[in-house]
């Protein structure tokens, strides 16, 4: 399990490699606000008080599914479970869209299980650093299957705020497609649907307690 100092170190290493704060958020499975906070504080002293309290930091939950992602066999089993959640939607859907980066390998295993074509979407947050998100746009990869007015599933690893999933659903509709259902490994918001599209998750995080 990573503590805050570990996350700061990872954020600093990713920033040094030239990743945007949006990409760092994606890599660490945290919100953009948390990624920005980690990067900005990664040059400071790393102390026990930083690990335990980290005052002023955003409230978030870090999800580390490296034990799944580094093993193709485990990834395949998880993909089968995610596909099983989607199977209740019927057999008419013939396209699975994976949200890059981490959603793409998961979508590959889901597409194989459900015998669908595979597409990928790069969300606008990958370009985000400190600029206005409204000025940025996402893209569907031309190296994979295209929407072409098709029904499709949407796959990602984590829902943190729901912004990226909402963006993807809207982008699919703008291409004439129809998102039938979404599935993720972990839902940190506890959402049942996004833009009227049902959302399924293998793990749902529920924060218990008051904020006083």
TrEMBL record:
HAMAP family: GfcR. Keywords: DNA-binding, Glycosyltransferase, Transcription, Transcription regulation, Transferase. This is Transcriptional regulator GfcR. It comes from Halorientalis persicus. The keyword Chloroplast does not apply. Residues 37-59 are annotated as: Disordered. DNA-binding transcriptional regulator that functions as a regulator of central sugar catabolic pathways. GO terms for biological process: pyrimidine nucleobase biosynthetic process; regulation of gene expression; UMP biosynthetic process. Pfam families: Pribosyltran (PF00156). Gene3D superfamilies: 3.40.50.2020. Belongs to the purine/pyrimidine phosphoribosyltransferase family. GfcR subfamily. The keyword Transferase applies. GO terms for molecular function: DNA binding; orotate phosphoribosyltransferase activity. Contains an N-terminal DNA-binding winged helix-turn-helix domain and a C-terminal regulatory domain (or effector binding domain) resembling phosphoribosyltransferase (PRT) domain. InterPro entries: GcfR_halob, GfcR-like, PRTase-like, PRTase_dom.
């Amino acid at each position: 399990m990573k503590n805050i100092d570990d996350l700061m170190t990872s954020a600093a290493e990713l920033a040094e490699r030239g990743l945007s704060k949006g990409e760092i958020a994606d890599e660490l499975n945290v919100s953009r606000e948390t990624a920005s906070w980690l990067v900005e504080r990664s040059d400071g002293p790393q102390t026990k008080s930083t690990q335990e309290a980290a005052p002023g930091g955003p409230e978030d939950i870090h999800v580390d599914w490296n034990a799944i992602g580094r093993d193709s066999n485990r990834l395949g089993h998880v993909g089968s479970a995610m596909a099983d959640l989607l199977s209740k939607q019927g057999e008419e859907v013939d396209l699975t869209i994976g949200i890059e980066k981490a959603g793409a390998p998961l979508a590959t295993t889901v597409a194989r299980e459900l015998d669908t074509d595979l597409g990928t979407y790069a969300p606008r947050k990958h370009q985000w650093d400190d600029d206005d998100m409204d000025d940025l746009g996402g893209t569907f990869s031309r190296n994979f299957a295209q929407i072409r007015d098709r029904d499709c599933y949407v796959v990602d690893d984590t829902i943190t705020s729901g912004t990226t999933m909402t963006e993807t659903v809207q982008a699919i509709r703008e291409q004439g497609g129809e998102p039938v259902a979404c599935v993720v490994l972990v839902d940190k918001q506890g959402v049942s649907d996004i833009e009227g599209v049902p959302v399924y998750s293998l793990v749902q995080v529920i924060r218990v307690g008051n904020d006083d």
